[in-house]
């Protein structure tokens, strides 16, 4: 087993998931957010949260199998639910139980539930994203980046200001893996363009600037999370979708990283409409 799950004594025990996962494998698998669609792209379980949870989780399991992994290798699940309220929990748990029976899974990895304003299309009620680790650790080449020592980076300009004012870095590199803080479409004075398309393009520029501080580029990106204030209620919007696709195709060098797009009611700054964070493997 490459993944060991545990519950520390000083944290609450939850039946549906564990609080901690320790992974010893060397190969990482990132699964794009899966919604309740079948192989033809038709939505399964319209209006039925439990049915959509079941199908979404089954799609996660199918994606893992394609990568030579299983739900037992999952180290983190993120569940995005539209217009979440506590009374929806029984349906969510029912859907997960049905998915477990359908896939034969008994895994209960660490999980995060996030209520969101909208997903990609109005009929989708839930989206599930997974990260897995498989395989045995491989020795690092002698000339590789330091394998176990995190290095933190501040994007010149706004990143230096945020490090001083708010105490966080824009990027961290551990070995060949780079994670970044969410990037908005701001300039170095934290002013946003009035035009939404310009804001999204500048957010991509800021991701690029931030990756460069850690020795990475858009061509190294394997996983994208984007957060959007919807253009209209219940739908992230045509401009968001079109410009995101155009920019990813233009910047990733022919690669197609996994991507989870989430509608949210608000972001970190007034008037901010998009935020992008990525994982890169150099």
Protein model, in words:
The chain is α+β, with helices and mostly antiparallel strands. The protein has 5 helices and 12 strands. The protein has helices at residues 49-66, 89-103, 158-166, 196-213, 238-251, and strands spanning 3-6, 20-23, 27-34, 74-82, 111-116, 126-134, 151-153, 171-174, 177-180, 221-228, 258-263, 274-281. It has a 6-stranded mixed beta sheet, covered by helices on one side. It has a 4-stranded mixed beta sheet with strand order 3-6-4-5. It has a two-stranded antiparallel ribbon with strand order 1-2. The protein is globular, with a radius of gyration of 19 Å.
Q: List the quaternary state of the chains.
A: single chain
Enumerate how many helices there are, as a single number. Answer: 5
Helix amount, in percent?
25-40%
Task: Give the helix/strand class.
Answer: alpha+beta
- Total beta-strand segments: 12
Beta-strand level of the residues, as a percent range?
A: 25-35%
Overall average residue pLDDT:
88
- What is the rounded Rg? 19 Å
Task: Give the overall shape.
Answer: globular
Instruction: Describe the largest sheet.
Output: 6 strands, mixed
Low-confidence stretches: none
Write down the secondary-structure element order: EEEHEHEEEHEEHEHEE
For the biggest β-sheet, the strand order reads: 7-8-9-12-10-11
End-to-end CA span: 26 Å
